[in-house]
Amino acid sequence: MNITIRGVRGSIPTFNPETMLYGGHTSCLEVVEDDCLLVLDAGTGIQNLNLSPNLDVHRIDILLTHLHIDHIQGLGFFKPLFDSSKEVHIWGVGTKTKSLRARIGRYFSPPLFPVYFRNLACKLIIHEIDNSIFNIGPFTIQSQYIIHPGPTVGYRVQSPRGVLTFIPDHEPALGQMKLTNEISWLSGIELASGADILMHDAQYTREEYRMKIGWGHSAMEDTLQFAALANVKKLYLFHHDPMHTDAMLDEMLKGLKENTSYPFPFEMAVEGTRIEL
Amino acid sequence: MSYPIEIILNRQLADCLAIPVFITDTSGNLLFYNEPAEDILGRRYEDTGEMPVEEWSTIFKSKDENGNLLDPGELPLVRTLHNQLPYFKTFWIESLIGKSIKISVSSYPIIGRNGVFVGAVAIFWSPSEE
User: Fold this and answer.
1) pLDDT in tens, A24-51
2) If 0-12 CB within 10 Å is exposed, 13-18 middle and 19+ buried, where does residue A228 land?
3) How far apart are CA A96 and CA A114, in angstroms?
4) Which of A74, B38, B124, B130 has the least CB density, counted as fewest CB within 10 Å?
5) ipTM for the complex?
6) Is A2-276 a CATH 2.120.10.30 domain?
7) Quick check: B113 and A190 CB within 8 A?
8) CA torsion B88→B90→B92→B95, rounded to 10°?
9) Is the overall model pTM greater than 0.90, yes or no?
10) Mind listing the pLDDT tens digit for each residue in B30-45?
11) What's phi and psi for A90, nearest 5 deg?
């Protein structure tokens, strides 16, 4: 399983000289194994994927965690959608009252976007999921609702070579003074359990989180504890706050390394990073 | 294995409330009760943790205004578990130490976005607070 981080930022693309190291594109991962291409989230990072040689496949599967704009903003600029030789599968969450097609269709329509969903050239197949398990090529994928405003899932992507868990937006500590140690009461833990790689929301510092409770994101310290409870092998702190510069992220990581002692390695996710499992 | 987030979020809400709240799974096993509910059960969640339906349903007796035992099928939470609908009823409960209190109970099913029934909630309060 080859993973490339195409976008790491949360909320809004953030490009300036102070964010060049970690990257400014919003949530997107490229995952490849045996000529099977998965795209996890379609934030503006999907723009980086347009140049990938891995796009030279007939079928592409896009797995959306949810439909907040930072996770779908790049969708309309993804070249395979406009290529009649491609088969694009979009997986995501519908609701009781609106199908996934109708919900994404709000983005693919004026005044937000000039091209309607129905006018896309590719062969488009929509899959509605919730707490689901499904197979794509060599991958077995589990999706599960997690705590974040609006319908949101995390993904556990398993192949013979390992497990990647992707939970870019998540607030498991919501309503508590701190993250619970009771596994059965912890949102998302099943997805992350024993994962080789966990990419998890870590948008805020502890102090920032206190001012933004209920916004759907995690304090970095809670993310570390979550990873420890899940017994993951490596953690990438993901969904960087748009106000966090490279220097600030460096400083925050240094502080976390100095003040904690977890048995697994962890680092800030950096746009362009390639990981081989 | 963790509980569905609909159950987790109900617990987190219950944790913040001053009214007694009980949360069960679809079989009626008691998954969580908050601090105000501890007064009704006479036990602490910290001590008991989760309780099977056979255990917690015997902690108090439910009676009508004439002191007759209520059929369990008349209780709001039991009806919610059977029919997956909200219910309300005012009745008397008698604890193991013989203390009787008049109580109103509202119950509702926890049905997630995907339409799956995952549990139920019962909220208790004294009718004098109505």
Assistant:
1) 999 999 999 999 999 999 999 999 999 9
2) middle
3) 28
4) B130
5) 0.80
6) no
7) no
8) 40
9) yes
10) 999 999 999 888 889 9
11) -110, 125
